[in-house]
Amino acid sequence: MLTRDQDRDARDEAELARLEGRITAMFAGDAPLDAEAVERVIALLDAGVVRVAEPASDGTWVTREWLKQAILLYFRVRQMERMEVGPFEYYDKIPLKRGFEQLGVRVVPPATARHGSYLSRGVVLMPSYVNIGAWVGPGTMVDTWATVGSCAQIGANVHLAGGVGIGGVLEPVQARPVIVEDGAFIGSRCIIVEGVRVGERAVLGANVVVTASTPVIDVTGAEPVVHKGEIPPRAVVVPGTRPRRFPAGEYHLPTGLIIGWRDASVDQKVSLNAVMREFGIAG
User: Fold this and answer.
1) Which residues contact 239 (CB under 8 A, 6 or more apart)?
2) Positions of CATH 1.10.166.10 in the chain
3) SS3 of 63, please?
4) CB contact at 8 A, 23 and 42
5) How many C-beta neighbours within 10 Å does residue 198 have?
6) DSSP 96
7) pLDDT at 264
8) What is the predicted pLDDT for the residue at 271?
9) How far is Cα 192 from Cα 229, in angstroms, rounded to an integer?
10) How far apart, in whole angstroms, are the C-alpha atoms of residue 259 and residue 253?
11) Contacts 24+ apart (CB under 8 A), 18-27
């Protein structure tokens, strides 16, 4: 006989399987649009019951395309409406997230988080933006004018410094979202897009730009080691360039340089300036 908790878990799994089937069929055009089912999925995203991507036991990340499909369908079922928040007026399809006090989230005006994003307890939003489908872990700081794009996955105790741009991904639906793992420090004006994965406790200096095709080169050894699409855990990365020849001549394109590795004994809340000083780069 199932216990009460096991019975509830079984019912929850059955509901998710039913919703996944409905969303997949609607997105493929094999079933009529069901606004109630779509709204239910977005509510589950908003509550953190489901995530667009999450870590597996082997250290990889599993992406659930059907949840991204649900977000795209949500734009179809919603109508434009006027929203007033104090002195601010908005006109959009997606409502704003609510209930921050109950969630234990600090939100500094005029920070904005859309309904369908999830903010864990202890998150701090300075005047910033979090888009639908994003998941932000406990204790994370989203600093002034930083943006967390659609479906991006931000871990626990991460610091997204001022002006950081974390890209979103809804189309193509198969693409992995940007992932920033626990304890990472992303310096001011960094840009991370196209499904790049930033490993645990990595440190990115100001103005590092990483796309899926940007080489991130480990220059700490006798020979360079090139990474693409990811930044290894504990890597300390600064902006660099690499030469490339074109018909019109040789030019330098942006790259990331791994100049060291964050020591496991260093507190994860250490300042970016302190880390940079450790590797001989003025903060």
Assistant:
1) 205, 206, 207, 208, 209, 254, 255, 256, 257
2) 4-77
3) strand
4) no
5) 29
6) B
7) 66
8) 60
9) 10
10) 18
11) 19/44, 19/70, 20/66, 23/66, 23/67, 23/69, 23/70, 23/73, 24/66, 24/69, 26/69, 26/73, 27/66, 27/69, 27/72, 27/73
CATH class held by domain 4-77 = mainly alpha
- Averages of pLDDT over runs of 10 residues in the chain (283 residues) are 51 90 96 96 97 93 96 96 89 95 96 97 98 98 98 98 95 86 97 97 97 96 96 97 95 96 66 62 54
- Sign, CA dihedral 208-222-234-267, equals negative
Which residues touch 127 (CB under 8 Å, ≥6 apart)?
108, 109, 110, 111, 144, 145
Length of the chain: 283
The ranges of the chain annotated as CATH 2.160.10.10 are: 95-263
CA distances from 65 to 24, 133, 221, 234, 277 (A): 9, 12, 39, 29, 42
Q: Which residues pair with 14 in a beta bridge?
A: none
Residue 210, both tokens: 């990483």
HSE of 76, CA atoms in CB hemisphere, 13 A: 15
Pairing assessment for the beta strands 159-160 and 185-186 based on DSSP bridges: parallel
Encoding tokens for residue 188? Answer: 């001011």
Q: b vs e for 132-151, b when ≥16 Cβ sit within 10 Å of the residue's Cβ?
A: bbbbbbbbbbbbbbbbbbbb
Pairwise CA distance, residues 273 & 283, whole Å: 4
- Specify whether the CB–CB gap between 130 and 116 falls below 8 A: no
Among the listed residues 108, 111, 134, 29, the one whose alpha carbon sits nearest the alpha carbon of residue 119: 134
Q: Which amino acid is at 264?
A: A
Q: At what angle do helices 4-28 and 35-46 cross, to 10 degrees?
A: 130
pTM over 0.85: yes
Pick the CATH number of 95-263 from 3.40.190.10, 3.30.830.10, 2.160.10.10, 3.40.50.720: 2.160.10.10
